[in-house]
Specification:
Keywords: ATP-binding, Cell membrane, Hydrolase, Membrane, Nucleotide-binding, Repeat, Translocase, Transport. By secondary structure, this protein is α/β, with parallel strands linked by helices. It has three domains: 231 residues, 3-Layer(aba) Sandwich (Rossmann fold), CATH 3.40.50.300; 184 residues, Rossmann fold; 68 residues, no CATH class. Helix content is 33%, strand content 26%. A seven-stranded mixed sheet has the order 16-17-18-13-19-20-21, with helices on both faces.
Length: 510
């Protein structure tokens, strides 16, 4: 094969969904032996572009060339046969099968393949790409990192030399991310083309060779990693300069506002998800919560907010135990606590309602009499739309038709308007553009200056370190440590996230 021929060439790609143009005149060129990062805000068209490359969608215009040959994929199997393997953020694995059985699934001979030949091929691939896979291990016993490696093994087994990784490190510890980057570099050494979709700028600068940026569905530019910077890339993504600095603020008169004592919480299946945790949140403090996915963060938030079932323990807010009180009881008692859930539309807002009615949901019970006066809420909606730059045709437009970022702004704005003493935030910037993320960090610091206690559940360790005063690490429903954010390293947080209790200066072990 001619080494000068690009592995991937996408020319003037266009894709339209109804009245929405997802991609317009997008050009992408990726060579073999190259890690090519794909950057862009939420809704910039990254996933749509990759879905066309992997055969999920068909372009409405433009051409795709693989190894110099024009292709017209009508299904993902066409793309797999051409050597394109897509590894999704949400894994496509069968939990109650072994690693080996998952690799064999979808092969023409199914489970009737020669096990000896399969194992030999798997061993050869693992050796070639330095993959650590226990082929007899059940998927449900695997960590997130092990599942990711298994997904990579699956596509390599099928002959892929072009790999697309979609936000692969979202719920990884730093140690798991490092292992993945070593595998990616091994793919590069073996001549593969790797496309890396991420929003983490430090990872882009660490592992990629070239970077393509999409903005509003179009190519904003392609740059060599060595000739650019995070500031330039952020500017390309949003179309104007962005201040990538989180200003840490101080609030001196700290005293406890929320105390959690020996709290045990059941999840929806009735299994104990929080296992006897103890911690204190102070006024004017941002307490970060770090942990791999499903470590109990969701149940902890919902227990404090009066939603999840508390098995035992205390939630002391302003001297009063909240256990046994539902959210309405908490509001009636005048206990102002705001909760921004992970599921924006499922729990936070009503999609079929407009902005005004969603704001009204939080405040109507405070009005006296039978007739609700909407005017103050209309005024609040207009103020929020302006302050948070919410993109909506008008304040009476159903919010389900808005982007995830704008929905999150409405939810956050509504909660802040309640004037909380404690603000619980679960993944508040997930899926938001860089500019909006930093606007929200500033809003959080504003609340801190007012003496509000903020419980900030996040997945970006760099943000937690820069924004928070302390970081509490949870693993499998327990607290493995509470550390000073100003002095902790990402590596130490990663070890705590993996369940390692490290007793050292600046670490409180719960």
């Amino acid at each position: 094969m001619n080494n000068n021929i690009p592995y991937i060439e996408m020319k003037n790609i266009r894709k339209v969904f109804g009245k929405v143009t997802a991609n317009e005149n997008v050009n992408l060129l990726v060579n073999g032996g190259e890690i090519h990062a794909l950057l862009g805000e939420n809704g910039a068209g990254k996933s749509t572009l990759m879905n066309m490359l992997s055969g999920v969608y068909t372009p409405d215009g433009g051409s795709i060339f693989i190894h110099g040959k024009e292709v017209n994929f009508s299904s993902p199997s066409d793309a797999i046969r051409a050597g394109v393997g897509m590894i999704y953020q949400h894994f496509k694995l069968v939990e109650n099968m072994t690693a080996e059985e998952n690799v064999m699934l979808g092969q023409k001979q199914g489970l009737f393949l020669s096990r000896k030949k399969v194992r030999q091929k798997i061993e050869d691939i693992c050796k070639k790409f330095d993959l650590d896979v226990q082929i007899d291990k059940m998927v449900y016993d695997m960590s997130v990192g092990e599942k990711q490696v298994l997904e990579i093994l699956k596509v390599l087994y099928r002959g892929a030399d072009i790999l697309i990784l979609d936000e692969p490190t979202t719920v990884f510890t730093p140690q798991e991310s490092e292992k993945l980057f070593k595998i990616m570099n091994k793919m590069k050494e073996n001549g593969c083309a790797v496309i890396f979709i991420t929003h983490k700028m430090d990872e882009v600068m660490s592992v990629s060779d070239k970077i393509s940026v999409l903005r509003k569905g179009e190519t904003a530019g392609t740059l060599n990693k060595t000739e650019t910077s995070p500031v330039e890339l952020a500017e390309l993504m949003v179309g104007h300069s962005v201040d990538l600095f989180i200003k840490r603020t101080n609030y001196d008169m700290k005293k406890p506002v929320l105390e959690i004592n020996n709290l045990r919480v059941l999840n929806e299946e009735g299994i104990e998800a929080i296992k006897g945790v103890n911690f204190t949140l102070n006024k004017g403090e941002i307490l970060g919560v770090a942990g791999i996915a499903n470590s109990g963060q969701k149940e902890l938030c919902e227990a404090i907010a009066g939603i999840a079932k508390i098995k035992s323990g205390e939630v002391i807010f302003d001297g009063e135990n909240l256990v046994g009180k539902n959210p309405r009881d908490i509001i009636k008692k005048g206990i102002s606590m705001s909760f921004i859930p992970e599921d924006r539309l499922g729990m936070g807002l009503v999609g079929s309602m407009d902005m005004v009615d969603n704001l009204l949901l939080k405040s109507y019970h405070n009005q006296k009499g039978f007739i609700i006066n909407k005017q103050p809420v209309i005024d609040s909606a207009k103020e929020l739309k302006e302050k948070l730059q919410i993109k909506t045709p008008d304040i009476f437009y159903p919010i389900k038709n808005l982007s995830g970022g704008n929905i999150q702004k409405i939810l956050l704005g509504r909660e802040l308007q309640a004037g909380p003493q404690v603000l619980i935030m679960a993944y508040p910037v997930r899926g938001l553009d860089i500019n909006t993320c930093y606007t929200i960090y500033d809003l959080v610091n504003e609340q801190k200056k007012k003496g509000v206690g903020v419980l900030f559940i996040g997945e970006d360790l760099d943000v937690l370190i820069q924004l928070c005063d302390r970081i509490m690490v949870v693993c499998d429903g327990t607290i493995t440590g509470v550390v000073d954010a100003a002095s902790v390293t990402k590596e130490k947080l990663g070890l705590l996230m993996s369940g390692n209790n490290i007793e050292s200066e600046g670490t409180e072990i719960a």
